[in-house]
Write a structure and sequence with these properties.
Layout lengths: L1 H16 L26 E6 L6 H15 L3 E6 L4 H13 L4 E4 L8 H9 L3 E5 L10 E5 L1 H15 L3 E6 L6 H20 L2 E7 L6 H14 L6 E4 L2 H13 L15 H9 L5 E3 L2 H16 L8 E4 L4 E7 L2 E3 L5 H5 L6 H5 L1
Parallel strand pairs: 1-2, 1-3, 3-4, 4-5, 5-11, 6-7, 6-8
Antiparallel strand pairs: 9-12, 10-11
Bound molecules: beta-D-glucopyranose.
The site of beta-D-glucopyranose has 11 residues, from loops.
């Protein structure tokens, strides 16, 4: 039954997304690798996204697809609704369709290693997008400096609350980024924890990055500690939203500083309202555009060099890391508005 349900999700999600690719033709491969685009000379890129639940991934998808097309390539995006089996099946599907390269936002860092093994067997290279695939021969990795994201969050919160009872509300443990965000925050908090200035009274990951779970966890924490929470470092805007709802019910919104990440529009509005302290803006246009260029170039067999490498437990993966930017009330104009991430009207509506 579970398998049937997952298959249905795969089919529905594929059906929703496939029409975006106008050039695709019917698959008559019978398992053979046949390139399913009309122009055989065109590079065919497969983009596998974990989920479209958080708003940012729509932007990644749109900008990535546009850049591949601008470079003369064809692209198909599939999202797995946070299901590992579905993501693996989707990879299989795209490999059978003859993609030249796979770009993957893994749901689970470890499980997605299977995708790399499968792709390599068919001569398809794999780029890990935003999140690192662990313990696999990943060809390239492109992301933001994720440890710095956590550092920016903790530093900004400390400006508002330099001591007291802190809660760390992490992301999904299955996402390698969540580990790095936490690591970054702890780099900043550790000296203060050691001095006894900051007491870490909560330090948990949040299953699937789910805002509702973050809210429930915060409600339980507030109850347990009789509302004695002084600051919250939430790993992204989704979890921050859940935390702030819980704080609001307890009459603590605006009193307890809360961080976030992704510069989601509701988070920008909360920052203006004063219920969220900061978010981290990661220029999605940069990662999407650079990843698309990388994918097309690698698929065309061009040599690509990167500045750095990151070890994923198996190899040193050639890596491109982009800079995240802290956003507070003070610099909304100079960041997300200046970059046209949002219009003035959207921000100040
Ligand atoms: C991304 C974040 C995002 C989170 C949940 C992370 O891997 O880096 O930008 O908020 O996943 O989707």
């Amino acid at each position: 039954m579970k398998k049937y349900w997952k298959l249905m999700v795969l089919l529905i999600v594929s059906a929703l997304i496939i029409p975006a690719c106008s050039n695709t033709a019917d698959n008559t491969s019978n398992g053979r690798k046949v390139k399913l685009i009309k122009n055989e000379d065109q590079v065919y890129v497969g983009f596998l996204i974990d989920t479209l639940k958080d708003a940012r991934w729509y932007r990644d998808k749109k900008l990535f697809e546009k850049q591949v097309k601008d470079l003369g390539g064809e692209v198909k995006t599939l999202a797995a609704n946070g299901l590992d089996d579905v993501q693996i099946d989707q990879a299989k599907l795209l490999i059978e369709e003859g993609v030249d390269i796979l770009v993957v936002v893994p749901h689970n860092a470890e499980i997605a290693a299977k995708i790399v093994t499968m792709a390599h067997k068919s001569g398809v290279k794999v780029i890990s997008y935003d999140r690192l695939i662990a313990n696999a021969n990943v060809d390239y990795y492109i992301s933001f400096d994720n440890e710095k994201v956590g550092e920016l969050q903790a530093k900004e919160i400390l400006k508002h609350q330099p001591e007291g009872n802190f809660a760390y509300v992490g992301g999904a443990e299955s996402d390698h980024n969540a580990i790095l965000f936490r690591q970054g925050a702890m780099n900043v908090l550790k000296p203060l924890i050691d001095k006894g200035k900051v007491k870490l009274v909560y330090d948990q990951y949040t299953n699937e990055w789910d805002p509702e779970t973050a809210k429930k966890n915060m409600q339980a924490l507030l109850k347990k500690r009789g509302n004695k929470i002084d600051a919250v470092i939430a790993a992204n805007d989704g979890t921050a939203g859940g935390v702030i709802e819980a704080l609001d019910t307890a009459g603590l919104a605006r009193k307890v500083p809360v961080s976030g990440q992704d510069a989601e529009l509701p988070a920008i509005h909360r920052i203006l309202k004063g219920t969220q302290t900061m978010t981290v803006y990661k220029p999605i246009s940069k990662i999407a555009t650079e990843a698309a260029k990388l994918a097309v170039h690698v698929a065309e067999g061009k040599k690509v060099t990167t500045d750095t490498t990151i070890n994923n437990g198996k190899i040193n993966v050639p890596t491109i890391l982009l800079e995240p930017i802290a956003v507070t009330k003070r610099n909304i104009k100079d960041t997300v508005i200046q970059d046209k991430f949002y219009t003035k009207q959207e921000v100040y509506q």
